[in-house]
Structures are given as structure tokens and as C-alpha cells.
């Protein structure tokens, strides 16, 4: 079975991976397994993805506040589709401009058959367009880089951002957020037969996660003695575990898209602290924030949210109840 990799790294990575893995097998013949999980080397035996960071245990000491103690981001209460402001600008334009990550399987990715963007996050954006413009297809999707997209919103290059990055404990001042539309527990992805079944097994292991504050902080709490490979894209974690650069991947909703691409990977471990996802918007666009929250409230109450979860995130298990909104007004 051919497993998915980025085309730019496929040939070199496989050749290097085969040589390195063969060397390990020869050297290990007849030697008993170490009683304590250990690793060696400095990640140079395989080429890591561009922009990846290696965080040693001493560098990833847990901050004062536990991620599980963070309250959901409170947002503005849903309002009516009034006149003026950002809403009228979007109506006059005739399209909702949404910035998305375009290579995160099952969340926002290009269908290999049709070439169209699809996924859970994409469908949520289309539901906003359905309510605002009367047509879920009236969305212009623009690619989002590895940053948080605040500049795109500030320069009006996008109306909102739907990206697969969990909310940090302290929200950035240059972004406004909708209510939480997705909340899933953090768990582990491991290879079949890895012997890893819970966070305690990650001590002195290499573990991959997305390089954002919430994910790195959560992993440092779950496995304070692990070495973290923090990468700019979730699919880099898929390549890392397939090439045996890491022993596990820690994440939340995005784990569904990774295991769907490789039958040799499993989601294991008890539910850890939850990762929360919200739509990012430009500060000051209160009319749009309220409108988006109105759409999210509809998705929770009319069953659409559950339909979308079952369509895209079923590898995580049965659909839970939608996250309850928190409002500050």
C-alpha cells in the first residue's frame, strides 16, 4: 500500500529512511530490548520537515497554568443580520472570503478526485455563507500560511479564518473569536505494536505535535520527559511517525485525518485535556462575529453539527454533543 507523503520529500525521505532502518535492524540483532524506553541521535538520521523545531524536555517545562484549566473563549451573543458594517460589505461583494489551511486531511483539504476544498472546517464556513448569502457555494477560499492569519484579517484579505489550531489559554489581542464550534480530547497516535498506550509511556520518547502554543503546552504537560518535534503542518507529523522519526503523535480533532490515511496507525490513550477550536475574525467586526455565532448556534440546534461530525470526524468515535457556547454579553 502506498502511503501519502509530500511529493517534494517522497524520494529522498524513502531512500534515507530505508538505509537508516536497515542499519538499525543489523545493529540490533541478538541484543535485548532496553528495559526503559530510550532514543539516540539528534534527528539528523532523517531529514525533518522545513520549519520543524526540536524541543528538549528541559525547554518544554509546563507553564504555571494547566491547559485543562482554561475556560472556553467567551464571545459575543448572536445578533440579527443588521444593516451596515462588515456584513453589508460581504453582501455587496457577493462572496464570503475565508482563509483556510489546505492540506489537513478531513478538516480542510483538496479532494484528490475533484480537486475541490472540502472537510469539516470547510463545511462550517459554507454554512456561514448559506446563512449570510443564501448559497453555501458563495465562498472564496484563500490559502493560509503557517502564521495565525492576523495580517490577512487586518488587510481585509479575508473575512474570517477557519484553521485546525486549538485556542491557546490566552487569546491573541489581534484576533477576535467566535464561540467554540469543536472541542475534542487530546489523545495519542502510535504505530501498531508500539507498546505505547498512555501518556506515561511517552517518557524519554520522541513525540510530534503541531507547533502552536496550545499544542506544545499541552504535550509538555502530558509528557514532561518527552522530546517534542513541533512541526508547522499536521501532515508533517504523519510523515514523521511513518518514517520512525517519532514514536507517537499527540493531538485532538486532527488525529482523525491522520489515521484515515494509514491503517497501521491507531488512536490510543485516555482522554486528556480538551482542545478547543473557534473561527478567527478581525477585532472590531462585531456584526460579523455575532452573525457567525448565530450560524454556529443553528448548527448545534438543527442537527447539522452532528451530521458534519459524523461525515468527517468519525475516526475519533461517535459524535459527542456540540460544545456549549460561552458569551460575555
TrEMBL record:
InterPro entries: Bact_solute-bind_prot3, Solute-binding_3/MltF_N
Region Disordered, residue ranges: 59-78
Keyword set, alphabetical order: Signal, Transport
Annotated SMART domains: PBPb
Segments forming domain Solute-binding protein family 3/N-terminal: 95-316
Pfam families with a match to the protein in the record: SBP_bac_3
Biased composition (Low complexity): 59-75
Lineage top rank: taxon: Bacteria
CDD domains linked: PBP2_GluB
Family: Belongs to the bacterial solute-binding protein 3 family.
Alphabetical list of PANTHER family matching this protein: ABC TRANSPORTER GLUTAMINE-BINDING PROTEIN GLNH, AMINO ACID ABC TRANSPORTER PERMEASE
Name this polypeptide is given: Glutamate ABC transporter substrate-binding protein
Naturally occurring in which organism (per UniProt): Rhodococcus pseudokoreensis
Amino acid at each position: 500500500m502506498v502511503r501519502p507523503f509530500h511529493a517534494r520529500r517522497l524520494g529522498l525521505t524513502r531512500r534515507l529512511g530505508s538505509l537508516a532502518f536497515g542499519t538499525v535492524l543489523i545493529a540490533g540483532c541478538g541484543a535485548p530490548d532496553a528495559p526503559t524506553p530510550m532514543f539516540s541521535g539528534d534527528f539528523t538520521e532523517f531529514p525533518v520537515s522545513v520549519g520543524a523545531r526540536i524541543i528538549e524536555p528541559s525547554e518544554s517545562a509546563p507553564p504555571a497554568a494547566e491547559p485543562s484549566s482554561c475556560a472556553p473563549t467567551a464571545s459575543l451573543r448572536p445578533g440579527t443580520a443588521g444593516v451596515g458594517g462588515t456584513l453589508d460589505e460581504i453582501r455587496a461583494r457577493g462572496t464570503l472570503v475565508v482563509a483556510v489551511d489546505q492540506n489537513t486531511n478531513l478538516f480542510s483539504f483538496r479532494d484528490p478526485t475533484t480537486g475541490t476544498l472540502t472537510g469539516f472546517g470547510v463545511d462550517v464556513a459554507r454554512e456561514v455563507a448559506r446563512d449570510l448569502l443564501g448559497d453555501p457555494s458563495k465562498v472564496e477560499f484563500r490559502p493560509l500560511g503557517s502564521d495565525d492569519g492576523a495580517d490577512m484579517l487586518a488587510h481585509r484579505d479575508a473575512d474570517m479564518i477557519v484553521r485546525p489550531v486549538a485556542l491557546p489559554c490566552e487569546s491573541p489581542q489581534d484576533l477576535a473569536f467566535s464561540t467554540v464550534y469543536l472541542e475534542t480530547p487530546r489523545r495519542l497516535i502510535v504505530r501498531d505494536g508500539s507498546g505505547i498506550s498512555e501518556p506515561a509511556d511517552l517518557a524519554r520518547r520522541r513525540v510530534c505535535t503541531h507547533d502552536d502554543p496550545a499544542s506544545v503546552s499541552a504535550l509538555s504537560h502530558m509528557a514532561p520527559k518527552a522530546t517534542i518535534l513541533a512541526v508547522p503542518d499536521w501532515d508533517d507529523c504523519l510523515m514523521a511517525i511513518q518514517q520512525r522519526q517519532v514514536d507517537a503523535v499527540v493531538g485532538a480533532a486532527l488525529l482523525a485525518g491522520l489515521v484515515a490515511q494509514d491503517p497501521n496507525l491507531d488512536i490510543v490513550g485516555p482522554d486528556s485535556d480538551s482542545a478547543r477550536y473557534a473561527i478567527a475574525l478581525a477585532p472590531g467586526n462585531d456584526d460579523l462575529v455575532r452573525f457567525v455565532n448565530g450560524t454556529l448556534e443553528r448548527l448545534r440546534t438543527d442537527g447539522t453539527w452532528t451530521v458534519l461530525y459524523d461525515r468527517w470526524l468519525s475516526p475519533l468515535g461517535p459524535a459527542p454533543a456540540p460544545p456549549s457556547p460561552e458569551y460575555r454579553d
